[in-house]
Amino acid sequence: MRGADVSDREFSLLVAYGTDMGNAEDAAMTFAEATTAAGIPAEAVELNQVELDQLNTTTHFIVVVSTFGDGEFPDTATLFWEAISASTERLEHLSFAILALGDTSYELFCNAGKLLDARLEELGATRLADRVDVDGYYEDPAKAWTTDLVKQLTAAQAGPAAAPVVGETVAADTAVRAQERNRPVAATLTVNRLLTTTDSDKEVRHYELDLTGSGIAYQAGDSLAVHATNDPDLVAAILAQLNVGPDHRVADADETLGVLLSERLEIRTPSRALQELAGPAGYGEDVLDLIKRAGLTVDEVVDTLRPLQFRDYSIASSPLVHPDHIHLTVATVRYPAGDRQHGGVASTYLAERAQTVQVHLRPNHHFRLPAADVPIIMIGPGTGIAPFRAFLQERAAAAAPGQSWLFFGDRRRDNDFLYGDELQAFHESGSLTRLDLAFSRDQETKVYVQHRMRENATELFAWLQDGAHLYVCGDADHMAKDVDAALHEIIAESGGLDADAAHAYVNDLIKTHRYLRDVY
């Protein structure tokens, strides 16, 4: 129950988000636009910028939060979660609602939203509505959630005489505008070039997409969503296993099964529902593997598959240099599982079949270059080099005076030095002040970027003390965690700080947007 003082408090609204790839931010901004248009001014802010004292003076708290990694909060929400987890302040006066974004292919689906929902309840806050957990595409569920809450908020602010129909119309119109922002447009693939050598045990390719006439205007640090189609050989194999043709019709579907499997449904990564029906997928198994093992019918398969989702790639070019083109750096996923080869959806589509590609821009407002005179430290092994190639192009084109330091790593220099000639040219011209390399397989003891960081600990800390912004891009499961641990150690040792003080130092870097990560 709410505290007795609720009716004495003046209505106030706080809208916040914790975002990884930008979906939660987009949904929260759309929600704030809807409430503003309905007469309740609001601005969406990242959760890390919300102080607990604000919750003590707020009556309504609306949150959109995604889940990152192994059920963790995204970087834009970690500080808030840390603070509210430790807080003992009661929040009986607070009404809240949470939209949780996630992916059911991960075990801890929407875990961040679930944790925050439970914690607010523990502290005495009251739900305006039950938490909504979204799997994959978020626009339609976010639209319905926004419409419902705008009606409730207009009523809470102005009483029963408020006109909820207006709020519903505004929320719907705003959500439609958000969907239009994410609508794919056609771009022509003009370059498909192998970056690794044929002797490499990886396949990394450089792509260039012609944006002429697309209406896309991007910034360095943004990502591009690629709407791929499924491998036609895999589609044909699934149809053959199901003993039906591509023109087969399933109940309540407007399109043939061939179209559904090719363009609409996820057939590389089995859904949780399909795995519950057929048994857990083994390493790398796809939908065909599960159909073979469990002898599934057409209806069982179609009813349990998830929608085919676009794939995000960090943009590897600057609009100052390539205003009408976007460059991508993509590792082609290929691996054996069982008795056949498997491959990634978008990476093999780009490598083997793409000509005209459906894409939409994914702005990353939290991964931007600072002012031209501010020093930057970039840590981007493997395909994590992509946004830093864009950063370096941008700074070179603008003749930016700020120093820059890049840590790049991969397996072998001769085979895997992605954009090696370009990076060395940036270094020789002075656009890149320092270049530290870590090729893990070129010596008996493996060396990674975090080792190079520790070797240069004193200077790296001095750069941070001088106001440098630190960026990390690449693998989230191992590299980003190892780099984060190294950063804490470097700050503690070079700054003469204990573990708690080093943690606080890093938290301050995060809160002031000087420690930014684009990890996947």
From TrEMBL:
Cofactor(s) needed: FMN
InterPro entries from the UniProt entry: CysJ-like_FAD-binding (IPR003097), FAD-bd_FR_type (IPR017927), Flavodoxin/NO_synth (IPR008254), OxRdtase_FAD/NAD-bd (IPR001433)
Record-annotated FAD-binding FR-type domain positions: 182-388
Keyword Flavoprotein (UniProt): yes
KW Plastid (keyword) present: no
Recorded superkingdom: Bacteria
UniProt keywords, alphabetically: Amino-acid biosynthesis, Cysteine biosynthesis, Flavoprotein, FMN
Ranges for domain Flavodoxin-like: 13-150
Pfam families: FAD_binding_1, Flavodoxin_1, NAD_binding_1
Protein's name in the database: Sulfite reductase flavoprotein subunit alpha
